[in-house]
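Thread: Newbie trying to understand structure tokens

Hi all, I'm a second-year student working on a class project, and my supervisor (Dr. K.) asked me to get a predicted structure for one chain before our next meeting. I've only ever worked with sequences, so writing a 3D structure as a token string is new to me. If someone could post the tokens and maybe explain what I'm looking at, I'd be very grateful. Here's the chain:
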Amino acid sequence: MLSGMLCSKMFYRVPIVGLDDLKDRVRTCWASLDQQLINKAIDPWRQRLKTVVKVHEGHIEQLFT
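---
Reply by user tm_fold:
Sure, no problem. This is what the structure looks like when written as tokens:
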């Protein structure tokens, strides 16, 4: 959801011209996102991560290697 909004704001305008233009658009789009929207995208992951930690008895480092 969040990435879809970011992409739609970034790419449906004028074609991107170079890396600096891309960086500027990403920064502009990110700054324009509503904090509540960002929270809605992040909040579901908190419970998922808590569940992973519980299932693996608090040791999850090996999952990232």
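A couple of things are worth pointing out once you decode it. Residues 2-64 form one domain. The chain is about 70% helix and 0% strand. Feel free to ask follow-ups in this thread.
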